[in-house]
Amino acid sequence: MTQLVQAGLYGLLQGCMLGLIAVGFSLVWGVMNVVNLAHGAFVVVGAYVAFELHDLFGLDPFLGSVPAALALFVFGYLTQRYMINLVVNAPIFITLLLTFGLQLLLVNGLILVFTADYRSVPTRYAADSLVLPGDVRLPLGRLIAALIAVGLTVALGYLMRRTRTGLAILATGMDRGAARLMGIRARHVYALTFGIAAALAGGAGAAVGAVSTFSPADAGRFTLFSFVAAVLGGLGNTSGALLGGLVLGLVEGIGGQLLPGTLVNALAFAVLVVVLAIRPQGIAGRAFYASRVEA
Amino acid sequence: MTNVDSEDPATEVTGVAGTAAAAPVAEVPAPIRPDGLRRALPWAVGLLALAAGFGLQTQLYTGQERTVTTVFMFVGLAAAWNLLGGYTGYASFGQVGFFGLGGYATVVVMVHAHLSFWLALPVAAVVAGGFAALVGWPLLRLRGHYFAVATLGVAEGLREVMTNLPRLTGGGAGITIPTVGPEAPTRWLGNDGFYVLFLLLAAFVVATAGIVASTPAGYALRAIHQDEEAAAAMGINTTVAKTLVFAGSAALTGMIGAAYAFQQVTIYPERLFDVDITVLMVVMVVLGGSGTILGPVLGAIAVAYASEWLRQHFTAGHTFVLGALIILAVILLPQGFTNYVRDATKSRRFSLLENVRRYRL
Amino acid sequence: MGTKLRTGLAVAAVAVLAAGCGSKGESTSGTQAGGKLVLGASLSLTGSLAREGILTREGYDVCGKVVNGKGGIAVGGKKLTLEIQYQDDTSKPDTAAQLVDQFNDKGVKLILGPYGSATTEAAAAVIERNGQVMSDSSGADDNIFSKGYKRTFAVLSGAKQYAASMIQAINDLAGPKPKTVAFVSADDGFSKTVTAAGQATAQQLGFQVVDVEYVPNGTSDVSQALTKIKPKNPDVIIGSAHLVEGVAIVKQAKELGVGPSGGFAETVAPPTPDFVQTLGASAEGVLGSTQWTVTTKGSDAWFGSATDYAATFAKQFGGRQPEYHGAEATAACLALILAVQKAGSTDAAKVRDAMAGLDEQTFFGPLKFSENGQNSVKPMSVIQIQGGKPVTVWPKDAAEAPLKWPGKA
Question: How many percent of chain A have pLDDT more than 70?
C-alpha cells in the first residue's frame, strides 16, 4: 500500500514539474494554433543555461531558472517574430515541419557545442527527502520544482486575465482579425506568447537539470509529454495543461506499480489515444477550443 | 425571366441566356477529363521512369544500390502518405505505425508460421489496412493537429506494444528472420533483388495513387480536403471515403514495411517504429508538392539524396544542416516544388518571396 | 504542351541520364595499394549512442596515431601507413549495415566495429555476405555470435560476464557476505543476457535473488522499479543497463530512500567519467564491471602495458585518463593489425584466417578467439568508485586497492 502512495506522490511531483512545460505548449497551441515540436528542445536549452551558470558562477539551479527563463523568452520572441510568423497562415503541416526543423537545429547544435554527455546540476539538497509516515519519501528537489511550477502557472493565469497584455493575447487567440481591427499588433502579440511559453519551458528545464540527468537527446521526450498533457488537460485554460500533467504523472506512477515496468511508456500513449477518442477537448478544455477539434 | 419556382436549374440558366439546350433534368455534368493521348502520356512517362530505374541498376555498386533502394522505399512511403495527407488533407503523423506493423506482421508470420515472404507480404497489407480501418473509426472524426497527434500516439503505442510482447516479437531484443539454411522460408533476395522489389513496390504505390487521383474517388478526396461539409452535402459519404483512403494508405505502407523488414533481417521496435521515418515522409511530400503525383516522387528523391550527401560530407553536423535546410525550404517553398513550378510557369511570377508573403502573418 | 507534360518529360530525361551516368565499369580504386592500410569504421557519432560512439572513436584514433608514429605496419616488405575512414551511422542499425556495404564498394574490406550490440549485429550480417572482416570492439551480446558468422571477431569479453564478474567479486571479497540481491535491468537484448547470466551466477554462489525488475531501455526514470524493490530489502542492487539508467538508479534510490546495505553494482556506467561527474558523492562505493583497467595484465609491441597505454592516451587527449570504451576500441584496431602482420597481406580471406588463429598478449589482456568469434580467454575486472575515481578491486592479483565493503551482517 505504501508503495502505491509513494509511487503516486512521486508521480504527482514529476507530473507537476513536467506540467509546467506543457502549460507553455498549450498556450502556444491555444492562441496561435501552432504545435511547437521544438518545445522540448527549449527545455533542454534552459537546462544547459542553468548548468553553465552553475559551472561558471556556482549559481543554484533553482535560482538559475530565472536567467534561463529570460534567455529563452528573448529567443522565443525572436523565433516567433521573424521565423514562425512567416508560415502562420499555411496549412498545419507546414508549421509542424518548421518547428521540427527547428528542433533538429537546436538539438544537434547542442550536441555540437556541449557534446552528447549526460549532465546534471548537482546540489547538496536536491536528493534529500522529506520523510512521511510509512517511509514515504518526498524528494526536496522535486518538491521545490513542483511548487515553482504551480506558482508560475497561477502567475500566468493572473497575467492572462487581469492585465491588458494578457487580454490582448486571449483576444488575438480568439479572433485575430478582430483583434487587429481593435489596434492590437498581432505579430508582436504572437511573438510575446511564444516568448512566454519558451520562458516557462526554460525555467522548467533548469529545474529538470537540478533534479535528474539530461542530454540533448531528451528533447523529444519532453515534447511528447507536453502533447499528451496538453491534450489531456484541454486547451484554453492555463491550468489545464498543469492538470493534465498531474493526471498523467499520477497515472504513470500508479500504473507503473501495477503493470510491468516496461509498459510505462505505453501508458502515456494509451491515455492520449483514449482521451482523443472519447473526449478530445480534454478535462478542462474550453468550449470555444473544442470547436477546432472535431469534424 | 427567372422563375423562382423552377425546379430545373439547367433550363433556368439557359432560359435567361436564350440558348435552348435540352439538357436532361438534374444531371451533374461529367468531370472535365483530358482526351485520350493526354491521358496516356503520364502513364507513358511513368513506364519510361520505371525502365530507367531498371537500367540504373546495372550501373551501380552495391552500396550505391542500397542507397537507391532506400530512395525507392521513401518514394513509395511518400506517395502513400500523400494520398491521405496531400489529397484528403488529413495529415497523419503516425504513418510509421503501419510501416512497423506490416514489418512485424511479416516477420512474426515468417518466423512462427514458416510462411514464405511472398505469402507474408499480402498478410502484412491486410493486417496494416485492417488495423487502420479499426483505428480510423474513432480517429478520423478529429481534425487538424488533433488528428496528427492522435495518429502519432497510435504509432508510438504500437511500438510499445511490440516491445512488450517478447515471446511473439522478441521485444526490445529484436527478432530475426532465418535467411540461411533449411529453416529459411524464403531465400534472402540480395541487394539486387531488393532493388527490384522496392522499385516495383514504389511503382505500384505511385500507380495506385495515380489511378485513385484521376477517378471520381480522387475528386471526392479533394472535395473533402477543400470543404468537408460541402462534400458531405454533395452526397459524398465522407466517413467511408476517409476510412477507405486511410486503410488503403496504411496497407500500402504496411507492404513497404514488410519488404523493409525482410531486407533488414533483424528488426527492432525502435527502428521499425521510428518517428523520424514519418517526418521524413512528410518533409518529402511537402517539399515535392503535396496533392500531386509527381511531388512525392521528386521530393523523396531530392530529400533522400540530400540527406545521404550531407551525411557523407558533414560527418559531425549533417543533421544540423538538414534542420536548417528544412526550415529554409518550408519558408520559401511551402507549397512544394511541383506546385510552385506549375503556378510560376502559368503566372510567370517566379519570386520565392511571393510564397513568403502569401503565408506570413 | 502543358506544364505537366513538360515536367514529365524533364523527369524522364533526368532518369535516363542518371541511368547512363553510373560507373560500375570503373575498377575500384586500389585503396589497399599505394602504401596505405585502410580500415573502415561506421560509428554512432550522432544519435542516442553518440556519447559512447565518440569514446570509441577516440580509441581508434589512438591506435592510428601510435601505429603511424612507429612507422606503420610491415606487410610483405613494405611499410603501410594506417588510415581509418569514419562514417556516421546515427546510432541506427540499418544505417550501419548500409555504410559497411558502401565501404565494401570502395574496396575497404577490413572493418572496425560500430558501437553497441544492435549496430554490430546488423553490420555482422553484411560482413558475412560481402566477405569482409570485422573486428568488434563493443558488441558483446551472445546473439551476434550464435548465428554461425565466421568473419566477425570480438576482442571484448562476452555479455554473460558483465554481471557475473561483479557477483563473483562480491562473493570473494565482501565481508560480511550479503545474502540477498535484486536486479534492475534494461530491456534490450544485451542487458537481458547480462541479467540472466548474473541471476544464474548469483544462485550458484548461494545468493538469494529477491527481485528482477525491467525498465525501458534508455529511460532516466527508474523510480517504478525501485519502489517495487524497496519493500523486499535486498542487500545489494545490481543494475544491468547503460549510462543513463545507471545514473538514475543511484540518484533515485537516494530520493526514494532505497539504501541497500551492500550498495550498488552496475554494468557499463561506473567506469565512465560521466558517472562520477553527475553523481558526485553518491557515486562512492559503487561497484562496476569493466573490460579493462590500468592494472590489466599483458603487454604488446605496439602499446606496451596497460599503464603505458594510459599514458599514451592521456598525452593525446590532454591529460584525460582512458576508460574501457577507448581501450576496447584500440584493442579491436590492434587485433586487425596483428592479423594483417601475421597474414603478411591485406587480403580479406587471409586476414580472417590469421585473426581466427590469433593467440596474443596485449595491453588489453589476452586475445584469442573461439570458434564463434568471441574472445574466450579474457576476464573482466571489477572496479569500485573510491575517492571519486574508479579503482580496480578484483581479480585480487590485479587489484589496486582492497574492496571497501559498506555492508553490515
Answer: 97
